[in-house]
Model the fold of this input.
Amino acid sequence: MESTRQKKVARLVQKELAKIIMHHGTELAPGKMISVTTLRISPDLSIAKAWVSIFPSEGSAAVLEVLRNRTPKLRYELGQKVRNQLRIVPEIIFFIDDSNDYIDNISKLLKE
Done:
């Protein structure tokens, strides 16, 4: 169960990370839209697990690899944004949120 502090820090990091990814969206994944859907932070606030949704979902593994390669740069920019609120900038680990694909699949199966 997350504490109130974890929830507040997770929301702050998610909001700022989403802004950074939106700002660099064209160089990270041209022709795709990336959004941070969920962010969970560890109890010691040192690790942030971010689930990203990529639209269109074709080639999402390649986009995830680009995000993972750019993690140090993204973490640095995040640190510049939240340096007055947080003492330690968390390590960021990216995962693909495939819930939209799952919903589409269920919709197609129900239409048949």
Observations:
- The mean pLDDT is 91.
- Residues 4-23 form the longest helix (20 residues).
- The first strand starts at residue 33 and ends at 41.
- Strands lie at 33-41, 47-55, 91-96.
